[in-house]
Automatic annotation (TrEMBL), chain A:
InterPro entries membership: 2Fe-2S-bd, 2Fe-2S-bd_dom_sf, 2Fe-2S_ferredoxin-like_sf, 2Fe-2S_ferredoxin-type, 2Fe2S_fd_BS, Beta-grasp_dom_sf, Diverse_Oxidoreductases
Signal peptide positions (record): none
Domain 2Fe-2S ferredoxin-type per the UniProt entry, residue ranges: 5-81
Organism in which the protein naturally occurs: Methylorubrum thiocyanatum
Protein keywords: 2Fe-2S, Iron, Iron-sulfur, Metal-binding, Oxidoreductase
CDD domains linked to this entry: fer2
This protein's record includes keyword Protein biosynthesis: no
Pfam families in the cross-refs: Fer2, Fer2_2
Protein name as annotated: Carbon-monoxide dehydrogenase small subunit
One annotated GO molecular function: metal ion binding
EC number of this enzyme: 1.2.7.4
Keyword Transmembrane helix applies: no
Automatic annotation (TrEMBL), chain B:
One family name in Pfam for this protein: FAD_binding_5
Occurrences of domain FAD-binding PCMH-type (ranges): 1-177
Organism from which the protein derives: Methylorubrum thiocyanatum
UniProtKB keywords: FAD, Flavoprotein, Oxidoreductase
Enzyme's top EC category: oxidoreductase
EC number assigned by the record: 1.2.7.4
Molecular function via GO: anaerobic carbon-monoxide dehydrogenase activity; FAD binding
Listed name of the protein: Carbon-monoxide dehydrogenase medium subunit
Automatic annotation (TrEMBL), chain C:
Organism expressing this protein natively: Methylorubrum thiocyanatum
Oxidoreductase listed as a keyword: yes
Residue ranges of domain Aldehyde oxidase/xanthine dehydrogenase a/b hammerhead in the record: 28-143
Any one GO MF annotation of this record: iron ion binding
Pfam families referenced in this protein's UniProt entry, alphabetically: Ald_Xan_dh_C, MoCoBD_1, MoCoBD_2
Keyword Coiled coil: no
Record key words, sorted: Molybdenum, Oxidoreductase
SUPFAM superfamilies cross-referenced by the UniProt entry: CO dehydrogenase molybdoprotein N-domain-like (SSF54665), Molybdenum cofactor-binding domain (SSF56003)
First-level EC class: oxidoreductase
Name of protein: Carbon-monoxide dehydrogenase large subunit
EC number, UniProt record: 1.2.7.4
Length: 170, 292, 788
């Protein structure tokens, strides 16, 4: 009989301690043990991107990681990133542009988009539509046809770039 | 789609990992980035008794210059490969290839060593290692040995690592002056496994191709070198005629299998087209010539 | 960025491109999908599935599995046969149709690879899967029926031993004399093949059944479009009281027609909850989704078109053979798609002579049924390819030949040779609008210029006519318990706000958003004051729900009329209080006003009074502020829409790869309620159609195994490969309703593959090549070009 193992993970800023079976994925741990159902399972093989969360600040597939592997690490899900306001600009743009329909893929897309925009900001780069599409290459959306998602991310990138220009000027 | 039960142990050193493997009475697997292992577990295609998590072994990290080699630790994430200035300066083939590897989130966990140890002929890094003439560092309980990439891959998902040993680093020779490198692949969708991929490294001195290493993904059970096509290039200028000869020679180098989704003939056609396009790009030094 | 403009015919809310109120919740990860629902004492189900496409079922040994940790029950076919009556996927208006009766789990035979055979109910999904590995089943493999043509052969093994052959349904449509029409005419012909697709909703199917034996009450949380349909089915097949069956569709992660069919697992989950008297959940994983969600398409259509030297069409003949699953799906059958193919071919054009044959053949593959745009993409591609071939034969431009042959303005109402009646279409307006939108002459000039440089671009267009707003003519007349009407209950709360419970459902397309807009406008209140509730049979009136592009047209009209009713009630009460004539009052921005707009009392004041001080109302005036309205269209059997797509592609003739450069749509769905949502319905639909055109195909091996049943192998179109899509509208409201809206959910899918087919063939034509099979994979294009 395989024993559950103790883990301590900082999830959305709060330190949580649980015993988990080694076979439990980070996604199932978040959903089942912590009730963080904003992390969605669409394929469980890392293809669809619906389960993507931030691990120590970088997007990873929660279905391709074991909960025990995350011991001692920081995990941020769509719920936490919403509460903290980090996703606010993207969420507002997605809402205005209707860049989601069923919403199942959306949490993963937001996490990926946020990381992409962070990299653009760091590089002082205004991304092209093609590069936005490229950043989304691991995220399935079956409802929107992607264009609205690209539009929404582009609009946040533009505000971000304009804000940076403003700072430079000041 | 839930994995079969297994035990899990996280280790802090290579020695501890090797000991844990040796001590396991059933089947053990080393877990690095897990981006190929986890899908296999979730699908119950693989069901080990023990996972040995080597993901936090500091000694397996790091990208360093060592003499005339660039040493890349096995735990180097694909995202780190993509971002590394050392790799961009000395092995830009890997930088180019990393951009084709799956998707951003996968690149944040997937590792150099994991990809090579899996030895999937459809993935990019095995072909790159052959094109670069790299050495792979394998550590077992009896010590560390180095194996040339050309001797490392044995068959589909098979290589020379003995059970219980692990890949700890790769060593890429620093490029000679005149070295040109290019990686390209053709896939149905961005980030999909390539239908055909090509890692190419040429050394061009003056107008003459001095050496050529061409390694293809997805055309055989291992990453495939193309010796006839390479020979067709060496000792002559890299011009349209040489490229035509090389692409013509490819039929003698490769014999891809029939695949339900994609026929051997189509795959050969793509390999020829890709070779022609990569070589044409390499005709101009802007595409991949190394600083002397 | 493509701007969405408000409809020129709009009002305060109707016609406005407003964001969806419900989307904020989803954006914050606060969606609640079926798998997110956790109930006390809930158990999890997993299924052992047949590895064979066709096999006799022998002994099943579950003893070891039943004893495994966490396992509560292992169930087989006989357990369910005792509590569930079989279902048969036929409709009486499809004369002569037959299909084998189905039970949740099979008793003696399996008929597709992936069919559930044994069910394990355990504490966790993982433990249920562990137990599956300990079950022994003796299968005796039988020869599988796989190939579409071979399935009809005399020597073909029969899937249903009680049937004479594998043909489930045959029909012929005949109008005029095609034979005469073809005499002396030019004719062009196609032999087109369309691959099998599947919906690949991001959220897989999920069902959580909870039976309470105390009240004999069954509650089912289910990822479905049609909760009322399942309420009826569960009650009838398990012998329960319909009033005690509650089906709740919480947030649904995509459906596209896939989540309104009966699946064996759903019936098994309900049955298991009845047997175990505990909540039982089943969520399909992605492998199971590919092996059990309905598939669609899979047609081979041979057709020919007769055309006069003047470029005027004379006749079309069609032979459509479609391979479906081993039986016909329930309750909508597997014949509707083929039926719509043979009825829609040629629909936009003036034709009197038409003949079409349809044969629906059983195969040992996943069951097939309605998926987004049912039949339309096939009919459109066949028709529009024939039209392009005719244009080519006669040296006419594709725009010109269409202009010459469309049904014209003075012909409405128009009846097609297949019997469809069009109230009014806008074919010529859409055509000329597309011509301008694409800047067609410039595209042709650019194409010629690039061709000289060895760059092969193709331009294709495709016209569609789409079936929306169905009446009972669709299913009801065939005996199916599928409602064509919708119900809406509107309530003014004591605080003067509005709650709206309606029978159309939400899967992200914005049903709730448009109903909110319609009610707010109809009533004269702020949209924020309207809360819309859907997807629960216990709290909403029964109705048809959301499918076949009916939500906006039928549900929207229901909501509009309900709001009129509630407005009349409010004004009656207000008139009594204000001692005014109701006819001289109005409601604007949440207040009862005089006819000139001067506010007399707020709805809050009115609500407070009616609920808390009804003693102040005159004796004859009811305080009721809840109204119900039901509506079903009574005029035309369907409200047909139309539109046209344009596609610009570039073919790499060395690799066979196609780059999609741009896609245009000009569409007419009648009154546009929310252009933002309409445009996104179209874009999403276009991309699903482009998936069919280039990527998606369920490939089967010789023994009936699905070879690419995973997200890495079944190629769904993704961001990098899809083009930007430009959309414009023409509005021809239906006069059957006050609202004037028709459906739009399928318009994107209906013609995008046809336009792409024409575009690729336009690129290939100078090279003497053509493709006639979808998806147009690099392999098929290389073969067409004789490169390999």
């Amino acid at each position: 009989m395989i024993e559950p193992q103790p883990i301590a993970v900082t999830v959305n800023g709060a330190r949580v301690r649980r015993f988990v079976e080694p076979r439990v994925s980070l996604a199932d741990f978040l959903r089942r043990d912590l009730g963080l159902t904003g992390t969605h399972l669409g394929c469980e093989v890392g293809a669809c991107g619906a389960c993507i969360v931030n691990l120590d600040g970088r997007p990873v597939h929660a279905c391709l990681m074991l909960a025990v592997q995350a011991d001692g690490m920081r995990v941020d899900t769509v719920e936490g990133l919403s509460d903290s306001g980090e996703l606010a600009a993207l969420q507002a743009a997605f809402h205005a542009r209707n860049a989601l329909q069923c919403g199942f893929c959306t949490p993963g897309i937001l996490v990926v988009a946020q990381d992409f925009l962070r990299a653009c900001r760091a590089a002082g780069r205004m991304p092209s539509r093609a590069s936005i599409r490229d950043a989304l290459s691991g995220n399935y959306c079956r409802c929107t046809g992607y264009e609205a998602i690209v539009d929404a991310i582009e609009s946040v990138a533009r505000s971000q770039a304009e804000a940076a220009l403003g700072e430079d000027a000041a | 789609m839930k994995a079969r039960a297994f035990d899990y142990r996280r280790v802090a050193s290579v020695a501890e990992a090797l000991d844990a493997y040796a001590a396991c009475e059933g089947e053990a697997r080393f877990l690095a980035g897990g981006q190929s292992l986890l899908p296999a577990l979730n699908l119950r295609l693989d069901a080990p008794d023990l996972l040995i998590d080597i993901g936090r072994i500091e000694a397996l990290r790091g990208i360093t210059l060592e003499g005339d080699q660039l040493r890349i630790g096995a735990l180097t994430r694909h995202a780190e490969t993509l971002a590394s200035e050392l790799i961009a300066a000395h092995a830009p083939l890997l930088t180019q290839a990393a951009a084709y590897m799956a998707h951003p989130a996968i690149r944040n966990l997937g590792t150099m060593g994991g990809s090579l140890a899996l030895s999937d002929p459809a993935s990019e890094l095995p072909a790159c290692m052959r094109a670069l003439g790299a050495e792979l560092e394998i550590t077992g309980r009896d010590g560390t040995r180095r194996v040339a990439a050309d001797d490392f891959f044995l068959d589909l998902f098979e290589n020379v690592i003995e059970p219980g040993a692990m890949l700890t680093a790769v060593r890429v020779p620093l490029p000679a002056p005149g070295t040109r490198m290019r990686f390209e692949e053709i896939a149905r969708r961005r980030g999909d496994y390539a239908l055909v991929g090509l890692a190419a490294q040429l050394v061009v001195t003056g107008a003459t191709v001095e050496s050529a290493r061409l390694a293809f993904c997805s055309v055989g059970p291992t990453p495939m070198r193309a010796p006839k096509a390479e020979a067709a290039l060496v000792g002559r200028p890299l011009d349209a005629a040489a490229i035509a000869d090389a692409t013509a020679a490819l039929a003698d180098d490769l014999a891809p299998d029939e695949d339900e989704g994609f026929s051997a003939a189509a795959r050969m056609q793509l390999a020829r087209v890709l070779l022609g396009r990569v070589l044409s790009a390499l005709m101009t030094r802007e595409h991949g010539e190394m600083a002397a | 960025m493509s701007a969405t403009t408000d409809s020129p015919n709009g009002g305060r809310y109707i016609g406005r491109g407003l964001p969806r109120p419900g989307a904020k919740r989803l954006l914050a990860g606060r969606g609640r999908y079926t798998d997110d629902v956790v109930l006390p004492r809930m158990l999890h189900a997993a299924f052992l599935r047949s590895p064979y496409a066709h096999a006799r079922l022998g002994a099943i040994d579950v003893s070891e599995a039943a004893a495994m940790p966490g396992v509560h029950r292992v169930l087989t076919g006989t357990d369910f046969a005792a509590i569930c009556t079989p279902w048969i996927g036929t409709l009486s208006h499809f004369k002569g149709m037959r299909s084998a009766p189905q039970l949740p789990l099979p008793l003696d035979k399996v008929v597709w690879a992936g069919q559930p055979v044994v069910m394990v109910v355990a504490e966790s999904r993982a433990e249920a899967e562990d137990a599956l590995e300990a079950i022994q089943v003796a299968f005796e493999e039988l020869e599988a029926v796989v190939d579409l043509d071979a399935a009809r052969g005399a020597q073909a093994p029969r899937i249903d031993a009680d049937a004479p052959d594998n043909v489930l349904f045959r029909t012929r449509i005949e109008s005029g004399s095609t034979e005469t029409a073809f005499e002396g005419a030019e004719s062009v012909a196609v032999d087109l093949r369309f691959g099998r697709h599947t919906a690949v909703t991001m959220e897989p199917r999920a069902t959580l059944a909870d039976f309470d034996p105390g009240e004999e009450r069954l509650t089912v949380h289910q990822s479905t479009q049609t909760p009322y349909q399942f309420q009826d089915l569960y009650a009838r097949h398990f012998g329960l009281s319909e009033a005690r069956v509650r089906v709740i569709a919480p947030d649904v992660g995509g459906s596209f027609g896939m989540k309104l069919h009966v699946y064996h697992e759903d019936m098994a989950v309900v049955g298991a909850s009845l047997l175990l008297k505990r909540p039982v959940k089943f969520t399909a994983d992605r492998m199971e989704a590919f092996a059990s969600d309905i598939h669609a398409r899979d047609h081979r259509v041979r057709a020919r078109l007769a055309v006069g030297p003047d470029g005027v069409f004379r006749a079309i003949e069609v032979d459509d053979v479609t391979g479906v699953g081993p039986f016909s799906a329930y309750p909508r059958t597997s014949a509707v798609e083929g039926n719509q193919v043979v009825r829609l071919i040629g629909a936009p054009y003036r034709l009197t002579d038409y003949r079409a044959d349809l044969t629906v053949v059983a195969q040992n593959k996943v069951q097939m049924s309605q998926y987004r745009a049912v039949g339309h993409p096939i009919a459109c591609a066949v028709t529009e390819r024939l039209v392009d071939l005719a244009a080519d034969r006669l040296g006419l431009d594709p725009f010109e030949i269409r202009r010459r042959n469309y049904v014209t303005e003075e012909m409405y109402p128009h009846t097609t040779p297949s019997g469809y009646r069009f109230e009014r279409l806008s074919l010529a307006s859409c055509l000329s609008k597309l011509h301008d939108l694409m800047d067609y002459p410039a595209l042709r000039a650019e194409q010629a210029r690039l061709r000289e440089r060895g760059i092969h671009r193709g331009i294709g267009i495709a016209t569609y006519v789409e079936i929306t707003n169905p009446t009972p003519a669709f299913y009801g007349v065939g005996g199916a318990h599928i409602s064509a009407q919708d119900g809406c209950v509107l309530k003014l709360t004591p605080a003067g706000e509005v709650q709206c419970a309606i029978s159309i459902t939400e899967q992200g397309q914005g049903s709730e958003a448009i109903v909110g807009q319609i009610v707010a406008e109809g009533l004269g209140v702020d949209r924020d004051a309207v809360r819309v509730l859907t997807g629960d049979t216990e709290t909403t009136p029964s109705g048809g729900a959301t499918w076949a592009c009916r939500g906006a047209g039928i549900g929207g009209e229901t909501a509009l009329q309900a709001s009129r009713k509630l407005k009349a009630r409010i004004l009656e009460i207000a008139a009594a209080i204000l001692q005014a004539e109701a006819g001289n009052l109005d409601i604007r921005e949440g207040a009862v006003t005089d006819a000139d707009g001067r506010a007399r009392m707020t709805l809050k004041e009115l609500g407070n009074l009616a609920y808390y001080r009804s003693d102040l109302l005159p004796p004859g005036v009811s305080p009721a502020l809840t109204v119900a309205h039901h509506f079903a269209p009574r005029g035309y059997p369907f409200a047909f829409t139309n539109g046209i797509h344009g596609s610009l592609v570039e073919v790499d003739v060395e690799t066979g790869f196609v780059t999609l450069l741009k896609h245009w749509v000009v569409e007419d769905c009648g009154r546009v309620i929310n252009p933002l949502l309409v445009d996104e319905q179209i874009r999403g639909g276009v991309v699903q159609g482009l998936g069919a055109a280039f990527f998606e195909e369920c490939r089967y091996g010789e023994t009936g195994q699905l070879l690419n049943g995973s997200m890495t192998d079944y190629l769904v179109p993704m961001a990098c490969e899809m083009p930007d899509i430009v959309i414009r509208h023409v509005e021809t409201p239906t006069k059957d309703t006050e609202l004037g809206a028709k459906g739009v959910g399928e318009a994107g899918t209906a013609a995008s593959s046809g336009a792409a087919l024409n575009a690729v063939n336009d690129a290939l034509r100078p090279l003497g090549a053509s493709v006639s099979q979808l998806p147009m994979t690099p392999e098929r294009i290389l073969r067409a070009l004789a490169v390999i």
